[in-house]
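Trying the structure run again after the queue cleared.
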Amino acid sequence: MDDCLIGLEGLRLQASIGIYAHELAALQPLDIDLRLAIDGTLAGRSDDIRHTVDYDQVVSALEELLASRHFKLLEHLSQAMLDVLGQRFPIKRAEITLAKPLAVPKARRVSVTRSAEWKREAVKVVAG
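Done. Tokens:
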């Protein structure tokens, strides 16, 4: 197995998140950092997007989740995002950090970091 770490940093999406009245009334920015571990064996040799994780599809999956409903807590949203990523993509491990830059006026941002791991079968490469 050949672990490959993919980073997606500084992704800014709009989210309906929070528990206060002003957070229920309007979307707010959500900053997302992702680290995804995949088996990079095939992609490293094939140069084929089908053998890795398509970053645009990852972003689309997260946008779909955010558009689906209001979330109260970063802790819950981060788990929901990990669940979606684990279900839709061939990821072995993932770490996600979600930050609300407007949450606390005296702070630069408030953030939550979570991680998950999935058992995936190893990819076998046959010499051709």
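Helices lie at 21-25, 41-46, 55-68, 74-88. Worth checking whether this holds up in the mutant runs.
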